[in-house]
Amino acid sequence: MSLKEKLTEFRTERETLNQKIRAMAGEVFAEEAKKLFETNPKLASFSWTQYTPYFNDGEECSFIAHTDDITVTDVDNNEEEDVSSWSVRHYSEKGTDWNGNPYTPSELELAGVAACDFLAEFQDEDFLMMFGDHTRVTVFRDGRVESDYYDHD
Questions:
Q1: Could you give the CA distance from residue 127 to residue 25 in angstroms, rounded to a whole number?
Q2: Beta pairing, strands 80-84 & 135-140
Q3: Rounded to whole angstroms, what are the CA distances from 38 to 43, 47, 65, 113, 142?
Q4: What is the mean pLDDT of each run of 10 residues along the chain (153 residues)?
Q5: pLDDT of 2-37, one tens digit each?
Q6: Cβ contact 96:103 at 8 Å
Q7: Pairwise CA distance, residues 45 & 142, whole Å
Q8: Starting from the edge strand earliest in sequence, which strands make up the sheet with 80-84, in order?
Q9: What is the predicted pLDDT for the residue at 54?
Q10: Whole-model pTM above 0.85?
Q11: What angle do CA 45, 46, 50 make, to 5 degrees?
């Protein structure tokens, strides 16, 4: 077998394995997302952005999925709300918001934190493999997942 034939065989096998791994990851993601929606009836969808920055002040630019700050949609009125898992947890513990006003997280904010916790179980590599680079990913209650181009400049 020639070098060219060996490399062709190798690349074909690599692509087959990559497709299998993507499918397995997608199945796990979909199964667990379904459970998330079942336990959070207020949640219609959640979304996040993921990309490799074009510039990082001289440092290496590495892909990152921004899953700590997400957007959630209310099932009742279809309104979107940005949720930072850190902020919700911090202000819940403190009992007041950044202005010192009493703070109690809404059911939708708590669902957003649950979504952040779900996403935190995955690695950036998983997100890149499943959804690609420079994307905004939205997961819907009905099981649909949309991955749209995201311009992060």
A1: 9
A2: unpaired
A3: 9, 17, 24, 15, 11
A4: 95 95 94 98 97 83 94 94 91 89 92 96 96 97 96 82
A5: 999 999 999 999 999 999 999 999 999 999 999 999
A6: yes
A7: 9
A8: 80-84, 64-74, 43-51, 135-140, 145-149
A9: 84
A10: yes
A11: 145
H/E stretch holding 20 reads helix 3-39
The span from the CA of 67 to the CA of 132, in Å, is: 15
pLDDT of residue 152: 82
| CB contact at 8 A, 135 and 150 | yes
Residue type, 15: E
Cα–Cα dist 20/13, whole Å:
11
| Residue 13 vs residues 10, 94, 113, 131: alpha-carbon distances, Å | 5, 54, 40, 22
Other beta carbons less than 10 A from residue 112's beta carbon: 27
